[in-house]
Amino acid sequence: MKPVSLRTRLTIFYSLILTVILVGFGLLSYHFLAVLLERTLAQELDDRVIALRGYLQYRDGSLVLDFDPNDPDEAYFVHTATRYYQAFDLQDGSLVVESRDTELLGIRPTSEEVATLARNSRPSDVETSGGIIRFHNSVFQSGPYRFLIRVGISIEPVSAALDQYLRVLLLLIPASVFLAGFGGWEMARRALRPAQELAAAARRIDIERLNERLPLRGTSDELDQMAEAFNYTLARLEAAVAEMKQFTASISHELRTPLTALRGEAEVALLEARSVEDYRRVLGSQLEEFDRLSKIINQLLTLARAEAGEIRLAVADVDLSSLVGSLADQMEPVASSRNIQLAADTGPGITVRGDASWLERVILNLMDNAFKFTPHGGEVQVTLTANAGQVILCVKDTGVGIPAEALPHIFERFYRAEPSRSKEVEGAGLGLALAKWIVDQHQGRIEVESHPGKGSSFCVLLPALDSGARRLNIS
Ligand code: ADP
Predict the structure, then answer these.
(1) What are the tens digits of pLDDT across the range 189-206?
(2) Which end of the chain has fewer CB within 10 Å, C or N?
């Protein structure tokens, strides 16, 4: 089924509300009009009866209306008021006098009915061929004689007025609803047109045209706010896609280099028959390339899992002093093979709360970088201090340093600064990105200071154990 458009829904809603209001108003006004007309009629009947009774007299054995026929007002009143008029003798219920119209209409209550009407002198409606007539019933007494006096009034004008009013309502309500519905439909079209234009503009934007933005009308209304929010999302999407493209390009490049080297070596090796020694050498070199490839892939996988929130840190108290000490011992052979002097000052028993194996990765990465980027004869210094609720681990080298413009980027994935990039230095630019993620997870931060040609210093600042690190809830 085709979904009902917002415009149709708005119009239906609007028309329904209006119908309910108009029908409610119609019913109420009809009711009040009916009550008002009824009251007026009852009042009129009461007035007539009171006035007529003033003329009633029992004279010479019969009941007469004693009025001055020469007075036109009086004559007119009596003539009108007695159009439906009857009087019954309450002794036997017999009719004493009646008007011509009641006679013609054949209104003739039985003697029992007369007695009942006299007892219960409330107005009573009588249905006749000339419409409903409301009779006022009252008892008139003159000496020992008692009569039931019935004065009637036709309620047809009231019914006719109410019918007329109902007809007007039945015509006006649907017409108003129709007109208002049409107006609402048109209004909804106008109100929703900018939204449709926005939707059309949004549909035109695809992944290739993420730099396009939705037009703002400058009205600061809800639609403008929606367009602004959409533009903001587009900007973020554009940045994310650009980053993704950059990432894909970097990853392809990083993977292609060792693969090309591997293929080249294999091709050269196969060009002619070689000695077992030669093959050993080629295979050994290929193993190195394989190691490099699997290191990159492992680092990438770790980063991807870290960003997807799949890595859970096993938090415990970590004796950083002994960890850094043993890692420095472990790296000593690497340092001496490069003729680099390694000095480690790890302080006694400095402990932090965290995951030992992940912290080890950070320290190893910083030390590995320090060795990689420090020429022969240089120095690498590892210091661990605890100070003002913070544990500070610094790895300082006297290496090539990092150019100032590269400093803000070194923690980005695949970023490698000059001159390390151009040199034959191993690495894919993933180590510091991972180190930063690990330090972030420990609610710490990593700072770098570097002077090109003089050396760099990387410091990791972690919360000390007694400064709330116990509350660290790393999962
Ligand atoms: P890589 O695997 O290339 O070492 P990292 O993410 O660890 O990747 O480092 C990113 C870049 O930061 C390096 O390529 C290098 O340009 C720069 N860098 C990191 N540590 C040092 C350092 N101690 N001295 C000079 N440059 C460094």
Answers:
(1) 988 888 888 888 888 888
(2) N
